[in-house]
Design goal:
Elements: H1 2-15, E1 21-25, H2 41-50, E2 53-55, H3 56-61, E3 73-74, E4 82-83, E5 86-91, H4 92-95, E6 98-102, H5 105-108, E7 117-121
Antiparallel strand pairs: 1-5, 2-5, 3-4, 6-7
Length: 123
């Protein structure tokens, strides 16, 4: 998340436009925030929110960060080591008519330790 935080500081104005999506494996969750860092997951998500980008998963599922019921990553492909570390942040105009589905563990674990975030945006 640190590298993305640096990118956000430089490209904040461009990312504040409409029809913007930032997505990927952030390897981050607020449960790992550290008070002595100059950035954190929570700080970065707050800055994204300030420019109008919100997590599609959290918006649609009405779940709080660090309380996700659908993980996206399974450490060593183990179901008991599940975390939500993949995100789709989108501008309000795209979130309005968006759908997001988290891939199922059983369908994807033979291919990857991550499951996909399947996004549909109807403009």
């Amino acid at each position: 998340m640190g590298q993305f935080w640096k990118y956000l500081q430089i490209h904040r104005a461009e990312l504040a436009d409409q029809q913007t999506i930032v997505l990927g494996d952030f390897n981050s969750n607020p449960q790992w925030d550290k008070p002595d860092r100059w950035w954190s997951h929570t700080d970065t998500v707050s800055e994204l929110s300030d420019i109008g980008l919100e997590s599609l998963y959290h918006s649609l599922h009405k779940e709080l960060p660090a309380s996700e019921t659908q993980p996206t990553f399974f450490l060593h492909r183990r179901l008991e080591k599940a975390y939500h570390i993949d995100y789709v942040f989108a501008s309000a105009d795209l979130r309005r008519n968006a759908k997001l589905e988290v891939g199922k563990y059983d369908d994807w674990i033979s291919l990857s330790d991550h499951v996909p975030l399947l996004v549909e945006i109807n403009s």
